[in-house]
Input
Amino acid sequence: MHKYMVLVALLFSSNIVFAQDSSSVEYFDSLLNKSTAEAAYYKIEYKKNGASYEAIIYIAKTGVLKSTNRYIDPTYKIRSGLSCSYYESGQLEDSTFYKEDKMLYSYYYHPNGNNWVVYMYDPVTGKETTRATDANGAPINPFIFTREADFPGGEDAWLAFLSSNINSKVPRKKKAPAGRYS
Output
Protein backbone atom coordinates (compact mmCIF):
# COMPACT_ATOMS: atom_id res chain seq x y z
CA MET A 1 0.00 0.00 0.00
CA HIS A 2 2.81 2.42 0.89
CA LYS A 3 4.60 1.75 -2.44
CA TYR A 4 1.33 2.36 -4.31
CA MET A 5 0.83 5.72 -2.54
CA VAL A 6 4.40 6.77 -3.35
CA LEU A 7 3.87 5.82 -7.02
CA VAL A 8 0.61 7.80 -7.18
CA ALA A 9 2.33 10.77 -5.51
CA LEU A 10 5.20 10.60 -8.02
CA LEU A 11 2.82 10.38 -10.97
CA PHE A 12 0.72 13.25 -9.63
CA SER A 13 3.75 15.46 -8.95
CA SER A 14 5.24 14.73 -12.38
CA ASN A 15 1.93 15.74 -14.00
CA ILE A 16 2.02 19.03 -12.09
CA VAL A 17 5.56 19.73 -13.26
CA PHE A 18 4.62 18.77 -16.83
CA ALA A 19 1.52 20.98 -16.76
CA GLN A 20 3.50 23.95 -15.45
CA ASP A 21 6.21 23.55 -18.09
CA SER A 22 3.79 23.15 -20.98
CA SER A 23 2.45 25.97 -23.06
CA SER A 24 -0.97 26.64 -24.51
CA VAL A 25 -2.42 28.88 -27.18
CA GLU A 26 -5.74 30.72 -27.27
CA TYR A 27 -7.31 32.86 -29.98
CA PHE A 28 -9.31 36.08 -29.59
CA ASP A 29 -11.14 38.48 -31.87
CA SER A 30 -10.34 42.21 -31.95
CA LEU A 31 -12.64 42.80 -28.94
CA LEU A 32 -10.81 40.10 -26.94
CA ASN A 33 -13.64 37.59 -27.09
CA LYS A 34 -12.49 33.98 -27.46
CA SER A 35 -12.41 32.96 -31.09
CA THR A 36 -11.44 30.19 -33.45
CA ALA A 37 -7.97 30.25 -34.99
CA GLU A 38 -9.48 31.05 -38.40
CA ALA A 39 -11.46 34.08 -37.15
CA ALA A 40 -8.89 35.32 -34.64
CA TYR A 41 -7.33 38.75 -34.54
CA TYR A 42 -4.99 37.88 -31.65
CA LYS A 43 -3.11 34.70 -30.85
CA ILE A 44 -1.94 34.43 -27.23
CA GLU A 45 0.69 31.90 -26.22
CA TYR A 46 0.82 31.12 -22.50
CA LYS A 47 3.86 29.44 -20.99
CA LYS A 48 5.79 28.98 -17.78
CA ASN A 49 9.17 30.69 -17.87
CA GLY A 50 11.28 29.88 -14.81
CA ALA A 51 9.46 31.12 -11.71
CA SER A 52 7.10 33.33 -13.73
CA TYR A 53 4.41 32.89 -16.35
CA GLU A 54 4.48 34.60 -19.71
CA ALA A 55 1.74 35.62 -22.13
CA ILE A 56 2.99 36.46 -25.62
CA ILE A 57 0.46 38.17 -27.87
CA TYR A 58 0.67 38.10 -31.66
CA ILE A 59 -1.47 39.52 -34.43
CA ALA A 60 -2.94 36.21 -35.60
CA LYS A 61 -3.04 36.78 -39.36
CA THR A 62 0.51 38.19 -39.67
CA GLY A 63 2.31 36.61 -36.72
CA VAL A 64 3.61 40.08 -35.76
CA LEU A 65 4.52 40.32 -32.06
CA LYS A 66 2.16 42.69 -30.21
CA SER A 67 3.25 42.28 -26.58
CA THR A 68 4.99 40.20 -23.95
CA ASN A 69 3.71 40.13 -20.37
CA ARG A 70 5.01 38.46 -17.21
CA TYR A 71 2.90 37.22 -14.30
CA ILE A 72 3.64 35.60 -10.95
CA ASP A 73 0.56 33.37 -10.98
CA PRO A 74 -0.61 30.59 -13.29
CA THR A 75 -3.98 32.35 -13.76
CA TYR A 76 -2.19 35.21 -15.57
CA LYS A 77 -3.82 37.89 -13.41
CA ILE A 78 -1.01 39.35 -11.26
CA ARG A 79 1.55 41.09 -13.43
CA SER A 80 5.08 41.10 -12.10
CA GLY A 81 8.13 41.86 -14.19
CA LEU A 82 8.59 43.52 -17.54
CA SER A 83 5.74 43.92 -20.02
CA CYS A 84 6.43 45.29 -23.49
CA SER A 85 4.14 46.33 -26.35
CA TYR A 86 5.17 46.85 -29.95
CA TYR A 87 3.90 48.83 -32.92
CA GLU A 88 3.07 46.73 -35.99
CA SER A 89 6.40 47.88 -37.45
CA GLY A 90 8.17 46.01 -34.64
CA GLN A 91 9.26 49.26 -32.95
CA LEU A 92 8.91 49.23 -29.15
CA GLU A 93 5.73 51.08 -28.12
CA ASP A 94 6.08 50.81 -24.36
CA SER A 95 7.89 48.94 -21.63
CA THR A 96 6.41 48.76 -18.15
CA PHE A 97 7.74 47.11 -15.01
CA TYR A 98 5.21 45.75 -12.51
CA LYS A 99 5.71 44.41 -9.02
CA GLU A 100 2.73 42.36 -7.84
CA ASP A 101 0.42 44.17 -10.28
CA LYS A 102 1.56 47.67 -9.28
CA MET A 103 3.14 49.72 -12.07
CA LEU A 104 6.54 50.95 -10.82
CA TYR A 105 7.84 52.53 -14.00
CA SER A 106 6.82 52.83 -17.60
CA TYR A 107 8.38 54.18 -20.79
CA TYR A 108 6.26 54.99 -23.84
CA TYR A 109 7.73 55.75 -27.24
CA HIS A 110 6.55 57.64 -30.31
CA PRO A 111 6.44 55.58 -33.53
CA ASN A 112 9.67 57.33 -34.57
CA GLY A 113 11.42 55.79 -31.52
CA ASN A 114 11.72 59.01 -29.51
CA ASN A 115 10.66 58.89 -25.88
CA TRP A 116 7.11 60.06 -25.24
CA VAL A 117 6.34 59.43 -21.54
CA VAL A 118 8.44 58.39 -18.57
CA TYR A 119 6.37 57.43 -15.52
CA MET A 120 7.82 56.33 -12.19
CA TYR A 121 6.18 55.36 -8.90
CA ASP A 122 8.05 55.05 -5.61
CA PRO A 123 6.15 52.55 -3.41
CA VAL A 124 7.97 53.75 -0.28
CA THR A 125 6.97 57.42 -0.59
CA GLY A 126 3.90 56.96 -2.81
CA LYS A 127 5.29 59.67 -5.07
CA GLU A 128 4.60 59.57 -8.83
CA THR A 129 6.78 61.32 -11.40
CA THR A 130 5.79 61.85 -15.02
CA ARG A 131 7.70 63.48 -17.87
CA ALA A 132 6.36 63.71 -21.41
CA THR A 133 7.73 64.99 -24.70
CA ASP A 134 6.34 65.37 -28.19
CA ALA A 135 7.74 63.42 -31.17
CA ASN A 136 10.51 66.03 -31.56
CA GLY A 137 11.58 65.91 -27.89
CA ALA A 138 9.92 69.15 -26.70
CA PRO A 139 8.40 68.90 -23.19
CA ILE A 140 4.61 68.59 -22.88
CA ASN A 141 3.38 70.49 -19.82
CA PRO A 142 1.07 69.82 -18.14
CA PHE A 143 0.68 66.13 -18.91
CA ILE A 144 -1.53 63.66 -17.01
CA PHE A 145 -0.43 60.05 -17.40
CA THR A 146 -2.94 58.32 -15.14
CA ARG A 147 -6.16 59.51 -13.61
CA GLU A 148 -9.37 57.93 -12.46
CA ALA A 149 -12.26 58.11 -14.86
CA ASP A 150 -14.99 60.55 -14.01
CA PHE A 151 -18.33 61.47 -15.51
CA PRO A 152 -18.78 65.01 -16.90
CA GLY A 153 -20.62 66.92 -14.19
CA GLY A 154 -19.50 64.64 -11.37
CA GLU A 155 -21.22 61.90 -9.41
CA ASP A 156 -24.62 63.63 -9.28
CA ALA A 157 -24.66 63.91 -13.07
CA TRP A 158 -23.69 60.22 -13.32
CA LEU A 159 -26.54 59.15 -11.05
CA ALA A 160 -29.00 61.33 -13.00
CA PHE A 161 -27.78 59.74 -16.26
CA LEU A 162 -28.23 56.23 -14.85
CA SER A 163 -31.69 56.90 -13.45
CA SER A 164 -32.90 58.32 -16.77
CA ASN A 165 -31.31 55.57 -18.92
CA ILE A 166 -31.79 52.34 -16.98
CA ASN A 167 -34.94 50.45 -17.86
CA SER A 168 -35.95 48.19 -14.97
CA LYS A 169 -38.12 46.08 -17.29
CA VAL A 170 -35.17 44.83 -19.35
CA PRO A 171 -34.33 41.84 -17.07
CA ARG A 172 -37.92 40.59 -17.27
CA LYS A 173 -38.06 41.09 -21.07
CA LYS A 174 -34.79 39.16 -21.42
CA LYS A 175 -36.21 36.38 -19.24
CA ALA A 176 -33.66 36.89 -16.46
CA PRO A 177 -34.22 34.80 -13.31
CA ALA A 178 -36.25 36.37 -10.54
CA GLY A 179 -34.24 38.62 -8.30
CA ARG A 180 -33.39 42.21 -7.51
CA TYR A 181 -31.81 44.23 -10.29
CA SER A 182 -30.56 47.75 -9.69
